Q: What sequence folds into this?
């Protein structure tokens, strides 16, 4: 199996190293990842600048290709310019920090996997729901298991998997749940400050609003100690609202 | 009606000026837009840098607030830091270039409206499907009409409207269609070049694959000379695939 790996924390992050080491047990791994951290870039692509690619070494050995772009750029580059064979699987991660609820809209990690799915390849994003003391071991082991499943079963066109793990040792993980995307929003605000030169600037900050009560969401599965696996797609059409919108009688 | 306007072409673009002038007929307009062009930024937000806001003048008069961030940043800033009253409507555009099919995933214009909807405000994105000789008149007139409808009717939670117009004079527009997002992909590739110093770089380029045959999509409505109005939402869960995924029997 040919596997393309990317992330949004950058090619020198700990999570992508753990992922690449684990997935080598399932096939040939090619890493193409941003040369620096690109978190919260959403599904951005680089149109107005040329992209640079350099070889990256880790622990004294060739590890992969570092690109001057976003995760979506990296997946396009990997498939269309770097890999000799089309990959059978695209995996993005392991992200430091969960990607659940509406946060997946901002997620570079998810967008890497989305780009793989757009290009017709079974794809998944893997994130570890913590910012402190991450233990990537259980996530890497689960990613390997999922990679083998995906290699065998594939996914429907236009669908990818968004996988999140709580930061727990393997023995304390309660199991795996197929989940839906929580509709809980991030509650953000701005911290307004003045710089030493008297000019105003703003820092964005925030937290999650109270958790929804739907036990089958990604957010609640994680909080209960389960691995969450959410199938997502990118036909954003709200079909159920179309008949009502037709009744608006829109005209010029 | 309080109206917040943003875009991704930047506060000095022609399209946002046409939009702001038109919407002043429907309410109080506040413009908060990127200080430079931010196309194809997807739903990015700025977490690792502070945001700067300056006042922007056009035609010798105060026009709005220029921010050092993405369209999603601008909408957050507008609502949470700049406007005294919460807006009744968020409008993003008028974009130079259509935002249809899977391209909406990369679109800064759509992401501005998405952010408005995430914050619970009726929102729409407006794009003009051309890169040459844009005539923003018909788009601005239609945006005004839609803004009044949205002010009166609102939208269901988590839903926004993605509006595209063909670049035709008003008398040649054939009408308005409620559409779904086309599943046609952008077919992109890389132009590999060598710089004067001998280093390799890549330019991303591409075109649409052959158009789908479904007449009710945004892409085909535009090609047939209609204005397309697509209701979109951002619960990305592929609910129909969940039962099959349950049958995979995922475990640790």
A:
């Amino acid at each position: 199996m040919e596997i393309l790996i990317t992330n949004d924390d950058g090619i020198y992050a700990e999570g992508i190293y753990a992922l690449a080491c684990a997935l080598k047990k399932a096939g040939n791994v090619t890493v193409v990842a941003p040369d620096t951290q690109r978190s919260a870039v959403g599904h951005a692509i680089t149109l107005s600048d040329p992209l640079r690619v350099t070889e990256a070494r880790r622990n004294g050995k060739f590890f992969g290709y570092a690109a001057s772009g976003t995760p979506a750029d990296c997946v396009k580059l990997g498939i269309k310019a770097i890999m000799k064979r089309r990959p059978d699987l695209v995996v993005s991660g392991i992200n430091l920090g969960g990607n659940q609820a509406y946060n997946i809209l901002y997620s570079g990690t998810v967008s890497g996997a989305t780009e793989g799915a757009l290009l017709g390849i079974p794809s998944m994003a893997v994130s570890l729901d913590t910012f402190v003391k991450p233990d990537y071991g259980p996530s890497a082991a689960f990613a390997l298991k999922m990679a083998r499943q995906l290699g065998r079963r594939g996914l429907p066109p236009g669908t990818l998997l968004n996988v999140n793990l709580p930061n727990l040792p393997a023995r304390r993980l309660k199991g795996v749940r197929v989940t839906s995307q929580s509709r809980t929003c991030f509650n953000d605000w701005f911290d307004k400050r003045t710089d030493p030169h008297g000019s105003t600037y703003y820092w964005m900050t925030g937290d999650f609003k109270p958790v929804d009560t739907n036990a089958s969401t990604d957010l609640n599965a994680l909080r209960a100690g389960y691995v969450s696996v959410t199938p997502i797609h990118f036909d954003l059409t709200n079909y159920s609202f179309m008949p009502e919108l037709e009744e608006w009688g829109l005209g010029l």
Observations:
- Chain A touches chain B through 81 residues (CB under 8 Å).
- The longest strand of chain A covers residues 186-194.
- Residues 118 and 158 of chain A are 6 Å apart (CA to CA).
